[in-house]
Design brief:
Layout lengths: L1 E5 L3 H6 L5 E4 L7 E7 L10 H7 L8 E13 H5 L20 E16 L6 E3 L5 H4 L2
Parallel strand pairs: 1-3
Antiparallel strand pairs: 1-6, 2-5, 3-4, 4-5
Amino acid sequence: MKALTICQPYPHLILIGEKHVENRTWPTRYRGPLAIHAGKSRQWLEDGDEERAEAMGRPLVFGAIVATCTLADCLRIVDIENGIFDDKYPQLRNRAHCFGPWCWVLTNVKPLPAPVPWRGAQGLFDVPLFEPEAAYA
């Protein structure tokens, strides 16, 4: 299974259904199952992010795989802004977390019952396939 490291608080926002796009500076041709790895960096955190997550009952996790999803598409932000994908992804045009320049559309997000500590990497990297019966029991 492919995996992608994403810095907090964005994996958290993906888990709670607020973020359906991962923004990257590079495109990918890969489509299919994807593990979401929450990186160790705290560079993108704002004051209060950790406290808000804790109050929601889902504390921020660092250095672990926290979910699986499907990487459904990889779209240019200019095409989204021009309405080219309005029929297929009407929710993207006005999303708060859709900046691009490349928007990786994530669907079928399934949080793991417990984070799996894992070392992240740049780009897409391989991890063992998480069996649905074991991962979501």
